[in-house]
Amino acid sequence: MVHVLTGSASTTSKESSRQLQRKLYLAAKRSRKRRFHALYDRIFRPDILWRAWHEVRSNGGSAGIDGITIEDVECQGEMLFIHSIWSDLKGGCYRPQPVLRVYIPKPDGRQRPLGIPTVRDRVVQQACRIVIEPIFEATFEDCSYGFRPKRSAAQATGEIKEHLVRNWWVVDADIQGYFDAINHDLLMSLVGRRVNDRRVLKLLRQWLEVGVMENGQWQATEVGSPQGGVISPLLANIYLHVLDRIWTTEYPKLGKLVRYADDFVILCRKNWQAHRALKVVGQVLNRLHLTLSPSKTKLVNVGKEGFEFLGFHFHKCKSKKSGKLAPFMWPGQKAMKSIRSRIRTLTGRRDFCMPLLELVAKLNPIITGWRNYFKIGNSTKKLQDLDRYVRSRLWLSFRGRKGRRRNWLMPRFLAWMIQCGIESFYVSGKCGYSP
Q1: Which value, in Å, is the radius of gyration of the alpha carbons in the chain?
Q2: Which of 184-188, 280-284, 369-373 shows the lowest mean pLDDT across its residues?
Q3: How far is residue 176 CA from its own chain's centroid?
Q4: CA distance 298 to 156
Q5: In the predicted structure, residue 162 carries a pLDDT above the cut 50
Q6: Which of 230, 323, 348, 360 has the fewest CB atoms found within 10 Å of its own CB?
Q7: In a 3-state reduction of DSSP, which class is residue 297?
Q8: Is 412:427 a contact under the CB 8 Å cutoff?
Q9: What ranges make up the beta strands (E) of 27-107?
Q10: Strand order of the sheet with strand 312-318?
Q11: Which residues contact residue 19 at a Cβ distance below 8 angstroms, ignoring those fewer than 6 apart?
Q12: 145 Rama sector, left if φ>0, alpha if ψ -120 to 50, beta otherwise
């Protein structure tokens, strides 16, 4: 154990764990009905635990109910921490702690519940995910893009734009309270179709039923999977794989299904197909003890109105080149409102005491990440609008620090904009604002 985890073992452990994943994936791919038994011992393999710890550490995150942060683990000793987990898993005495319930604001003003497991539980969940994910990846459908290896939201949006060339009607669906409505027994039966190791199934059941801690009070979790858990996205994909499988085998002629976690759309050629698709989806979700949100689920004619998915607004507009209607995509209203809010927060009056270069250092990662995601669309105008917004906010901050409104401030501001290295939403590389 100690020998494996010392020195530069992280690279070696990552490669050995990936070799295990490849073997499990190929074995599951060869037989869609095979059930895997001896998996628990692999979860506490030193290389698996070491890789799991590094991935949890790289993802960051706050402490759970025990108050222990990632920094605390580093100070106390990573080796001791990993060895403790290994010992508990091997001895069969590992027990997860309740999840800390917090709330994060949503763009519409509501709050989304988020569950934060302890760092220790996140590492064990990650180790379990490393082992069992390849088994399910072997049978997941191509229409699913969310929280899967080598798949991304950019691929999902590109797939939608491609299929909108021939399709005109869209089922824009929203599952009501998906993560809070997952049926534990049904989920465990779906997992049991591929995993037959009772100790692994017990681990998963414990994470589902461990409960949440909110305002110092413990609450049972009889249904649902807390958002924020490392294992939750995989379990969510296993649950909705039923929808993917039924659709791709029985109803592919009705339309193209594109799903990202619990968000999905169905692209149909004709109106009747969209109505039929909506009915079928409702029936399948009913079997999964899920319901569509009546207020958020709708049928959209993309030639007359658009829809938003994964931050993009999709719409068929007249092409300047051909003069015909063609699919276009650009940042949606919610995405624009969200990024403006982040910029406004960073450049507000309460941050006037922050050095300007420090302010730029905080803005640049936000601008770069946002640009890299949305630049794949027809986003030129939106990105240019954001550049102007950033410049106006920085001007207010620059002028506020001086406490004056003299005209000589503008040339100094423009010179500072060129020299400070502020990124641009529209152009690649660094901003080239000119006087």
Answers
A1: 25
A2: 369-373
A3: 18
A4: 20
A5: yes
A6: 323
A7: coil
A8: no
A9: 99-105
A10: 307-309, 312-318, 325-331
A11: none
A12: alpha
